[in-house]
Amino acid sequence: MQNFTYHAPASLAEALALKNEDDAGTRFLAGGTDLFLAMEFAGEPVKTVVDLKKIPELTGIEELPGGGYRLGALTLMGQIEAHQGLRAQYPALVDAATVVGGPPIRNRATLGGNICNASPAADASTPLLALGAELVAVSAEGERSLPLGDFWSGPRQNALKPGELLKEVRLPALPEGGACAFERLTRSAMDIAVVNAAAAVSLDDAGNFASAQAALGAVGPVVLTVDGLGDALRGQPCSPEILEQVRKLAEAAAQPIDDKRASAEYRRDMAGVLAMRAVERAQLLARQGKGDEK
Amino acid sequence: MEAQDLKIVGRSIPRVDVTSKLTGQALFGEDVKLPGPLLHGKILRSPHPHAIVKRIDTAAAEKLAGVKAVATAADLPDVRIGKNLKDEHYFASDKVRFVGDRVAAVAAVSREIAEEALRLIEVEYELLPALTNPIDAMRPDAPLVHPDLMNYQVVAAAQPEGGNVCSLNSLSRGDPEAGFAEAHQVFEQQYITEMQHQAYMEPHACLATYNPDNTYTVYTSTQGIFGMRNSVAEALGVPQNRVKVVGTEIGGGFGGKIVMKDEVAAATLSRKSGLPVRIVMTRAEDFMCGNPRAGFYITIKTGVSKDMRMVARTMEIVLDGGAHAMGAALMCWALPQFAEGPYSIPNLRVTSRCVYTNKANSSAFRAPGGPQTNFAVESETERIATAMGWDALAFRRKNLMPEDHPNLAGTPMRSVNVEETLDAALEISGYDPAQTGLGPNRARGLALGNWNVGGMPTGTVLKMNDDGSANLITGVVDLTGVNTSLTQVVAEALQLPVEKVTVKSLDTDSAPHAAQSAGSQTLKSMGTAAVQAAQEVKQQLFELAVEELDATPDNMELAEGEVRVQGSPERTVAVRKLLAKHMANSGPVVGKGGTGAFSRMPSFCAHIADVDVDSETGRVTLLRYCASQDVGVAINPVICIGQVQGGVAQGVGMALSEGLTYQDGQPQNTGFLDYKIPSALDLPMIETKLVEKPAVEGPFGAKGIGEPPCVPVPAAIANAIYNAVGVRVTSLPINPEKLRRAIKAKKEGQASS
After folding, report:
1. Residue B215 has pLDDT above 70, yes or no
2. Is there a contact between A260 and B740 if contact means CB atoms under 8 Å apart?
3. Which among A1, A190, A194 has CB closest to B681?
4. Residue A223 above 90 pLDDT?
């Protein structure tokens, strides 16, 4: 491990000031489950580490007055896993957070760090994208919000500007009659996703799709949305033919590559299978939520 | 063997090492500390799979502050080393032959400085084309990994053929070709397996000191201190008495900690610096430079008669040897059992070629060659039965080897308990050959396995203390609870409570020569030696008691700290009293025991895997696993069950997820992120049944059982997958992508036909 200077400021202002002193050589530390690996094994040059864990504004899980949730950037995967309110409304996110590493990792790894790390295989990012999450970034100049879909520009690349920090994630309320689901394929029980998928759907009174969004992980440079899904499903029942359409849209959305974990061909195939399963299960949950348990 | 009245053998006493392991006090390879300063050693390893080393310049590294020594080939005698074929320089001198090949070593006051120094060593390489596949390596135009192969000194069973084939070994009986000609049907198929790393918890770690009396002391996490000492002495060019190897606690071996690693580098750096040097491999280094299970390319051909007999078989094996020939001899001694499995086949030939490639050196891993060849044998058993419309269980029963069946080497197989072992697995699992399906995409699969266990030269000393307690001195490493089992063996033999017996693994200066803890024979060899030593002790005590008891030694017995006359419980004398007398007259009571090599004797197993296949993703979930194991006598049943469960877990990894992969000679998965071993979450409860029937040799009739449980696992799972989805996968691992592709191909084939 290389030598570095360590700071643990207690305020946001102090953290931002430290970063501004040498933006390129300074890295924010949340859980450290990605950063330390990068420093130890990838030789990422880091002179200064600014530990964020003492900053209260970056923590907390709160339900918002108009519906939806605010999750501080330092929210631990383990906190999401244990949160009853989130589990009731956003099982896709809770399920995803629950499969990130093992318990010691989940008690260290943060949602904000996971998003900023910009891995296309980040499990928690896929449901957040399907759910239409917004991010709030903060800098000395103030706060700005941006859609999660605009945040990643490539593997390990995010839209934070110099001097900027991810403050929180805002999850919108699910539409009436809505539900979500997460699916993942791995090589063994504890593993990075070969492919993951999440879907958020809502049903109309007839039980047909009113809205549908899906996202795919590990099949492109960033976590991807399945384009055209809402238009294709709106007003339709959840039939085998419609699910086949979900599969085709997901396969078309995927931009996979060959790597040591899987071939591009298999990843595209699995994007279709997992998207179908996520949509079908979200739809079932939505039906159950409407009291229509068949 | 007559019925035995055993008091201590057969009980699951707690392991003698349980407290030190559970409280973290056990000292593993990295934990060794000596008084005074200590240096950290690091190895410069080749980044290229195949290259000529033109120049090494260590000047800049030597000048770096904090660096105390740098070592290269120039610091060692210019000799080639190797246990089977002398084909390896300890430090690369002419060429590097795999990514991770040792080029130089540095000792510094910190690990960081040592790493920095490695970056300052300049090495000029001339790159050569790399071979990552033994089939390619056998082509006439393939580059040669060892151009001087045919001039190398052969030590053991290696028989160089030339080209990249560092050993060609073959055994046969009968006339397989005539057998095929007369057979009712002949089946042929190729099976492929990948290199599998042992994935022990503790990476290789050692500490060496060069002492003022011109000797070396090496502390290392090894399976065998004497083999290690001999290798270290050979590479250093010093007599064996000048190297002392101390085995530390060992965090798993599975065959991967037999071959010498960085010990000589540490010893050389210590000699040059005058300080102790510790070298601990990173996990990535351990994956790169380990000795994995060889990848096999197997062509198996079987002729069967109309009445369900296997009448002829040939098996041709091409094995991926890696950069050096260490795997070859292993495969030679295992050769006789590869093709026949637990069956009896009159016309049989097995041919094995060990081929050099530019990859890690393959060598021993729990039953070397066993799971690979069993995958072919037991997949074929089911495939043939299916094709012939036979009940696969009846087909097996018809061909099981009988007692005294001579194996391909002519050794009669004794204590053959294969049928009892098969029946035990059927019983605990409720397996019905007519009903292997368990629902859509769910089924069970069966495979039989065997592994022949011999013995290795091993000696021991049993010392009686004044108070009647005993110490057993052994040179075997306490792997998998062997010292606990030895404690039970000695306690039983001397009729002492286990609290009065201590078994200690000592170093090469202190203990008589002993075999490595490997080959499933440790307890068999050392236990037999210990029983002999106990007999000597008893004999000495009985002779001393002749006067007191007025009886002959053959009428005496030991019990509860006394020598008694059989049938006359009132005629006794305390062992303590006899010991005092012996001490005064002729010195302490010490027993010696020693064994040479035993003949090989089979241990059988039968496994039944229940699987669920996700046909859309290709992911296999194990629902249940049942394993029976022929153990002879279970000295400590809980330890035996642990062995079975651990073996199954490693077999599951080989079957479904493990494999060292290379691209253009570069290792692709040198960490647990991408080298996937099964975790507890991937495994069901492994239900075990120990089949006990005392064997004709071994302490109290115990058989070797460490290796067999991993043998039939890949075949059992492959057979279950076939029964679930109708797809026969003939290469390992059966990972989701491969199985999905096979399922799709089958569907497309059905759609188009």
Report:
1. yes
2. no
3. A190
4. yes
Residue B9 has pLDDT above 90, yes or no: yes
Number of other CB atoms surrounding residue B218 within 10 Å: 27
Cα–Cα distance, A110 to B4 (Å, whole number) = 62
pLDDT-derived band at A176 (thresholds 50, 70, 90) equals confident
pLDDT at B434 over 70: yes
- What residues have CB less than 8 Å from B415, skipping those under 6 apart? B403, B601, B602, B632, B693, B695, B696, B703
Closest chain B C-alpha to A263 CA, distance in angstroms: 8
Give the DSSP per-residue string, B446-457.
EEEEEEEE----
Q: Looking at chain B, which residue has its C-alpha nearest residue A184?
A: B617
Axis crossing angle, helix B326-338 with helix B370-388, rounded to the nearest 10: 30
Chain A: residue whose CA lies nearest to B674: A261
A263 CB neighbours in chain B (<8 A) are 737
B683 touches chain A (CB under 8 A): no
Of A190, A191, A266, the CB nearest to B737: A266
Percentage of chain B lying above the pLDDT 70 cut = 99
Q: List residues in chain A touching B: CB distance below 8 A.
A: 1, 185, 187-192, 194, 260-263, 266, 269-270, 273
Name the pairing type of β-strands B310-322 and A69-72. Answer: unpaired
Q: Quick one: pLDDT at residue A293?
A: 47
Q: Is B3 on the interface with A (CB under 8 A)?
A: no
Chain A residues in contact with B737 by the CB 8 A cut-off are 262-263, 266
Nearest to B622 by CA among B681, B676, B675, B707: B681
Write the pLDDT tens digit of every residue in B99-120.
999 999 999 999 999 999 999 9
Tokens 């791995």 correspond to what residue?
A: A186
What are φ and ψ of residue B680, in 5° steps? -55, -30
Query: Predicted confidence band at A294 (pLDDT cuts at 50, 70, 90)?
Result: very low
CB–CB contact B681 A260 (8 Å): no
Mean pLDDT of A135-162: 96
Q: What local confidence, expressed as pLDDT, does residue A291 receive?
A: 66
Cβ-nearest to A191 among B668, B676, B741 = B676
CA distance A215 to A210: 17
Distance from CA of B264 to the nearest CA of A (A): 26
Dihedral-angle region of residue B365 (phi above 0 means left; psi in -120 to 50 means alpha; beta otherwise): beta
Q: What is the pLDDT of residues A7-46, one digit of tens each?
A: 999 999 999 999 999 999 999 999 999 999 889 888 788 9
Distance CA B214, CA B236 (A): 12
What is the rounded CA–CA span in Å between residue A91 and residue A281? 11
CATH number assigned to the domain covering A178-289: 3.30.390.50
Tell whether B132 is within 8 A of chain A (Cβ). no
Establish, for the pair of chains A and B, how many residue pairs have beta carbons separated by less than 8 Å: 40
Looking at the complex, does the CB of residue B747 fall below 8 Å from at least one CB of chain A? no
| B438-478 pLDDT, tens digit each | 999 999 999 999 999 999 999 999 999 999 999 999 999 99
The proportion of chain B whose per-residue pLDDT surpasses 90, expressed as a percent, equals: 92
Q: Which of B112, B663, B736 sits opposite A187 (nearest CB)?
A: B736
CATH number of A58-171: 3.30.465.10
Residue B412 CB-half CA count within 13 A: 6
CA gap B262, B251 in Å, rounded: 17
B3 pLDDT band, cuts 50/70/90, is: low
Query: In order of start, what are the domains of chain B with their CATH numbers?
Result: 18-25+455-595 (3.30.365.10), 32-128+201-252+257-289 (3.90.1170.50), 296-454+599-752 (3.30.365.10)
More confident residue, B356 or A1: B356
Q: Does B617 touch chain A (CB under 8 A)?
A: yes
